[in-house]
Amino acid sequence: MQSMDWDKLRVFYVTAESGSFTKAGEHLHLSQSAVSRQISTLEDRIGVALFHRHARGLLLTEQGEILFRLARDFYQKVEIVEGRLRDSKESPSGTLRITTTIAFGSVWLSRHIGDFIRAYPDIDVQLMVSDFDVDIAMREADVSIRFQPPHQPDLIQRAITDVHFNIYGSSTYLDRKGEPESLDDLANHDLITFGPDAPPSVRAVDWIAQDENGQLRYRPILQINSIYGLLQGVESGLGLAGLPEYFGITNPRLVRVLPDIVGPKHTLYMAYPEELRDSKRVSVFRDFLLKNVGTIAAQ
User: Taking burial as the number of CB atoms within 10 A of a residue's CB, which of 37, 102, 233, 295 is the most buried?
Assistant: First the structure.
């Protein structure tokens, strides 16, 4: 096997990730034929086929899978080195990929991230929202903000704040059904829940329909496997739901029900890989989050 051509390895890596010569060419600013030629040259040089070519796209061969894993590890390390070099500058710069839950990212963080962007214009922020974990240990993101401690090893984690899930309704619903005076009164109300498939980060939303053991106590009028679905149901006057308290802070259409009763809480954690411990991008974002996330509990 001849020595590796690093330019062609990059073309291979991008092609393997995108699954087609056309998409790889768009990313690399090359023509489809140029990408195909470089892959063919690489295959000839190392003496193995890297892709199965078929009408629906490209599939990696067994040898291609091995090379792709090596290339992915290599380019992740290159990204780390580039990040450290950028962080050696006086002003934080570079890409900061943040992953968090759909609700927290869309409702709270998206409302506040503008202040961070204006304070650090050389940082390119990418916000990725999902209620399921992203593997930041494999650098799918730089920072994770979740309502449970990370399960992945070798991560630096910090508890940011506690967020309670309280009961909310709309004035339309309360005018129609009246306001409950105790938790037992919920038996006579229309309840909206997430349902049994709620991921850990949003599991507390269903507490209003459950007993102290987490078993279903009241039959909900509707189950929606989406926090936004719950929010829309409450806003439309359909019923009551348990929602994170930052929903009530940012949404004047929500009315907190049984305000003397504090619902269950989740602790909000920030986590990032050990190799980003000295990253200026990460440290300034951590400081920003700690400074501003107190508005959840303060209002």
Answer: 233
Tens of pLDDT, residue by residue over 8-45, are: 888 898 898 888 888 888 888 888 888 989 899 988 88
Nearest in space to 189 (alpha carbons), one of 209, 212, 216: 209
Distance CA(15)–CA(38), nearest Å, equals 11
Q: What is the 3-state secondary structure (H, E, C) of 74-120?
A: HHHHHHHHHHHHHHCCCCCCEEEEEEECHHHHHHHHHHHHHHHHHHC
Thinking of the domain 91-161+267-298, which architecture would CATH place it in? 3-Layer(aba) Sandwich (3.40)
The overall longest dimension of the chain from CA atoms, in Å, is 78
CA-wise closest residue to 282 among 147, 156, 142, 148: 142
Beta strands in 198-254 (DSSP E): 222-223, 241-244
Judge if 6-86 and 162-263 fold alike in CATH terms. no
Confidence of residue 152 (pLDDT cuts 50, 70, 90): confident
Of 270, 278, 234, 226, the closest CA to residue 109 belongs to 270
Tally of CA atoms within 13 A in the half-sphere of 126 that contains its CB: 9
20-34, 108-122, 127-141, 142-156: the lowest-pLDDT one: 127-141
Residue ranges covered by each domain of the chain: 6-86, 91-161+267-298, 162-263
Helices (H), 158-269: 171-177, 227-235, 245-250
170 and 155 Cβ atoms separated by less than 8 Å? no
**What's domain 162-263's architecture?**
3-Layer(aba) Sandwich (3.40)
Query: CA angle, 44 as apex, 42 and 49 as ends, to 5°?
Result: 80
